[in-house]
Amino acid sequence: MRILIVEDDKDLNRQLADALGxxxxxxxxxxxxxxxxxLGDTEPYDAVILDIGLPEMDGVTVLEKWRAxxxxxxxxxxxxxxxxxxxxxxxxxxxxxxxTKPFHVEEVMARIRALIRRASGHASSEMVCGPVRLxxxxxxxxxxxxxxxxxxxxxRLLSYLMHHMGKVVSRTELVEHMYDQDxxxxxxxxEVFVGRLRKKIGVELIETVRGLGYRxxxxxxxxxxxxx
Length: 228
Description:
Blueprint: E1 2-6, H1 10-22, E2 26-30, H2 33-42, E3 47-51, H3 59-68, E4 75-80, H4 84-93, E5 97-101, H5 105-119, E6 126-129, E7 132-135, E8 140-143, E9 146-147, H6 152-163, H7 171-178, H8 188-201, E10 206-209, E11 213-216
Parallel strand pairs: 1-2, 1-3, 3-4, 4-5
Antiparallel strand pairs: 6-7, 7-8, 8-9, 10-11
Helix pairs in contact: 1-5, 2-3, 3-4, 6-8
C-alpha cells in the first residue's frame, strides 16, 4: 500500500513516514500544498494524510481540487485542536476522516488502516484467503497458523492482493503501489516476488491471468474475504 503524506512540519512528516514504513507501507512525502496537490493528482495512492494548514496552497483547496478531478483515494486530514471550522470545511471538501493535533501516531495508523480496509470492502483488520491470514494491525501473515517470514516487498505484494481479493491486478498497478516515486521501477521483478510468495504460501491462491496480471482468490469452499 502506498501513502502520501502532505505535512509542512518536517519532523512530524518524518515521524509519520517512519511509523507507516514500520507497518509495511510505502510513503511519498510533500511539504506544501502545491507539491502535495501535484503528487495526489498524478500518482496512485491508497490513502493520503493531509494537513489543513499548508503553505502555498491550503489543505482544503488541495482536497477540493482532487475531488473535482475525480481523485477518490481516502483522505485523512490533520487539523488544529481549536479549529473546529477546519474539520467541517475538510469533511465538506471530501475528507473521509480527521485527527486533531496533537495526536498519538498510533491513532493515525489505526485510522489509515480503517480507511484502506473500507475502500477495498473489508470490515476487519484481519483478512483471510483459504489458509492464509493477513493481520494488517500487526503487519504479519500466516498460513494455517504458522507465521510467514516475508521480505518487505513480499508483504506489500501479499497485502495488496488480499486487499483486492477476487480482482485482477496488473503488474503496472502492483509496481505503482509497492514502490515510492523515487524507486527504479521494473515490472519484471513482480514475477520474481510472486514466485517467491507462492512458494512460501504453499497453496495455489495466486492466479496468473495471462496478459492482464494476477488475481488472489480463496478456494472454492471458502469464498469469504474476512474471518467469521
